[in-house]
Amino acid sequence: MSEEVLTLEMFHSSTFADGAVRVEMDGILHIGPKGFFILFSHEKIKIPIIEEGIVRRLLHAVPCYLGGENLYRDTVRVVATLQKMDGRVKIRTIESGVLTREEEEEEIYAF
User: Fold this and answer.
1) Does pLDDT of 19 surpass 90?
2) Each residue of 91-102: pLDDT tens digit?
3) Would you call 25 exposed, middle or buried from its count of C-beta atoms within 10 A (0-12, 13-18, 19+)?
4) 4-110 in CATH: which number?
5) Distance set, CA 35 to CA 8, 18, 32, 48, 83 (Å)
6) pTM of the prediction?
7) Between β-strands 4-5 and 21-32, what pairing exists: parallel, antiparallel or unpaired?
8) Cα–Cα 20 to 30 A to 93, which of 48, 49, 77, 106?
């Protein structure tokens, strides 16, 4: 299964009605007390991440924020499998990703 670049039109279409779809997507990764999700598009659509072990995987590859509410709140590009569950599109698994942290110097991490 090859990935398609997730677009807003694709997200709102019936693409996910037939099962899992492998996509490449850009967004803002949020891992914290308000949940695990990627904020997608300018419309700020939250796509929940349900992959077990995602926090452990990220902590192994990417330093988290210290002293803040969130462990992660960074720009990402991921290859993920999306699936509609309970009427909502969710990220079932993240195959690979690149996280960009823009502090004093831009740092890029693969996970």
Assistant:
1) no
2) 999 999 999 998
3) buried
4) 2.40.50
5) 22, 26, 5, 8, 18
6) 0.90
7) parallel
8) 106
